[in-house]
C-alpha cells in the first residue's frame, strides 16, 4: 500500500467514478484503475463495487476510508511543517556565544531577527567560549560564536569575523604610560575575570603561552567571574586588570582607567563554529548570516585611537 494509492482511492471516493477521478488527477483511467486494483490486492479485499453509474464503497472500503484520510492529511501536515521551517515560518535557531556579546551586537541582532522572522523561536545562550564549544560538540547547540583558540575536535571553525585588542588597565597613569610587556605583567598586582574557566579562557591561555616562552608565570591576586567585576575592582584601585578595549569602553571604564596596549599587540579573535558534517537548520543559518551582517557593519573598535 502506498500513499499514492490512498490518494487515488480518496479521489475515486470524492468524484464517485474512476473516469471523473482520473480527469481530476490528470491521468488516464486505465492507469488509475490499475492502481486501485493493486491497492485491493495489497489489502486482500475489494474496496469498490463498480456499477455502470458510479462507484460504491464496500464494507472494506468504508473501513479503509478514515485511515486513508488520516494518512494523507498527516503527510500534507508534515510537508507544511517542513516548508514552514525551510521558509522560516517556524522552527528554532539554537546558538551560543561569549557572555559579553550583548554589550556589542547581540541585542540588535535578536531584535532584527525577530522582526524578520517573528514565528521562529530563538535559543541564544551566553557562555564562556569553552562551554559554547563543548555544547556545540555535544549537539546541545547548533552553532556558536567563540573566541579563539578553541579545541576544535569534531568542530568546523570558520574564518575570523571579529577582532578586539586586549589592553592593560590601571588607575595608575604611570603603569599605563608605556606598552605592557609580559615581563612587567608578571610583576603586576592583577584581578582577572573568568575564574571558572581560568585554564580554558582564550585570553588567559595566550598570556600563559607568552609567559611560558619567557620563563615566567602570570598569577592573578584576585579572580572573579565577570569582566564587569574585574573592571570595577580595577577602577577602585584594588588591582589592575586585562580586558579588551571595546569591553572597557562599552561598560564605561575606558574613561575611568588608564590603559595601554601590549607589546607585541594582543587580540581577542572570534569565529563561528559548527559541528562537522552536520547541516544547520534554516533558522540557525539565517541567524548566523544576520550576525555576520551586523558585525560587518560595526566600526573596528580594536583599531580606534586612544580616547
Describe this structure in words.
The chain has helices spanning 3-15, 18-24, 29-43, 59-86, 106-116, 129-138, 182-186, 202-213, 227-235, 245-250, 282-297, and strands spanning 48-50, 55-57, 92-98, 121-127, 143-148, 155-157, 162-170, 191-192, 222-223, 241-244, 258-275. With 307 residues, the protein is of the alpha/beta class. The protein has three domains: 3-83, Winged helix-like DNA-binding domain superfamily/Winged helix DNA-binding domain (Arc Repressor Mutant, subunit A, Orthogonal Bundle); 92-161 and 271-301, D-Maltodextrin-Binding Protein, domain 2; 162-269, D-Maltodextrin-Binding Protein, domain 2 (3-Layer(aba) Sandwich). The strands form three sheets. Strands 3, 4, 5, 6, 7, 10 and 11 form a seven-stranded mixed sheet that branches. It has a two-stranded antiparallel ribbon with strand order 1-2. Helix 1 crosses helix 2 and helix 5 (106-116) packs across helix 11. It is rod-shaped. The model is unreliable at 301-307 (pLDDT under 50).
Detail the poorly predicted runs: 301-307
Terminal CA distance:
75 Å
> Mind telling me which CATH architecture of the largest domain this is?
3-Layer(aba) Sandwich
The average pLDDT value, as a whole number, equals 90
Number of helices: 11
Instruction: State the helicity in percent bands.
Output: 40-55%
**Domain unit count:** 3
Provide the gyration radius in Å: 32 Å
Amino acid at each position: 500500500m502506498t500513499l499514492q494509492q490512498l490518494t487515488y482511492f480518496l479521489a475515486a471516493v470524492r468524484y464517485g467514478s474512476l473516469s471523473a477521478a482520473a480527469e481530476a488527477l490528470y491521468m488516464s483511467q486505465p492507469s488509475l484503475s490499475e492502481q486501485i486494483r493493486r491497492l485491493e490486492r495489497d489489502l486482500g479485499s475489494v474496496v469498490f463495487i463498480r456499477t455502470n453509474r458510479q462507484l460504491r464503497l464496500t464494507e472494506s472500503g468504508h473501513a479503509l476510508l478514515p485511515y486513508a484520510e488520516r494518512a494523507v492529511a498527516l503527510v500534507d501536515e508534515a510537508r507544511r511543517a517542513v516548508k514552514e521551517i525551510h521558509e522560516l515560518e517556524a522552527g528554532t535557531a539554537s546558538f551560543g556565544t561569549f557572555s559579553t556579546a550583548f554589550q556589542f551586537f547581540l541585542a540588535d541582532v535578536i531584535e532584527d531577527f525577530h522582526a524578520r522572522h517573528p514565528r521562529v523561536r530563538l535559543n541564544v545562550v551566553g557562555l564562556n567560549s569553552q562551554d559554547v564549544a563543548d555544547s556545540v560538540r555535544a549537539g546541545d547547540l547548533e552553532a556558536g560564536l567563540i573566541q579563539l583558540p578553541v579545541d576544535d575536535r569534531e568542530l568546523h571553525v570558520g574564518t575570523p569575523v571579529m577582532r578586539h585588542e586586549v589592553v592593560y588597565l590601571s588607575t595608575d597613569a604611570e603603569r599605563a604610560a608605556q606598552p605592557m610587556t609580559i615581563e612587567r605583567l608578571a610583576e603586576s598586582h592583577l584581578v582577572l575575570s573568568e575564574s571558572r574557566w581560568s585554564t580554558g579562557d582564550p585570553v588567559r591561555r595566550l598570556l600563559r603561552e607568552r609567559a611560558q616562552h619567557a620563563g615566567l608565570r602570570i598569577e592573578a591576586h584576585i579572580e572573579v567571574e565577570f569582566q564587569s567585576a574585574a573592571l570595577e575592582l580595577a577602577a577602585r584601585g584594588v588591582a589592575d586588570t586585562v580586558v579588551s578595549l571595546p569591553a572597557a569602553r562599552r561598560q564605561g571604564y575606558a574613561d575611568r582607567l588608564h590603559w595601554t596596549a601590549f607589546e607585541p599587540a594582543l587580540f581577542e579573535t572570534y569565529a563561528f563554529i559548527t559541528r562537522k558534517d552536520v547541516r544547520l537548520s534554516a533558522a540557525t543559518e539565517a541567524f548566523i548570516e544576520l550576525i555576520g551582517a551586523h558585525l560587518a557593519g560595526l566600526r573596528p573598535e580594536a583599531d580606534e585611537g586612544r580616547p
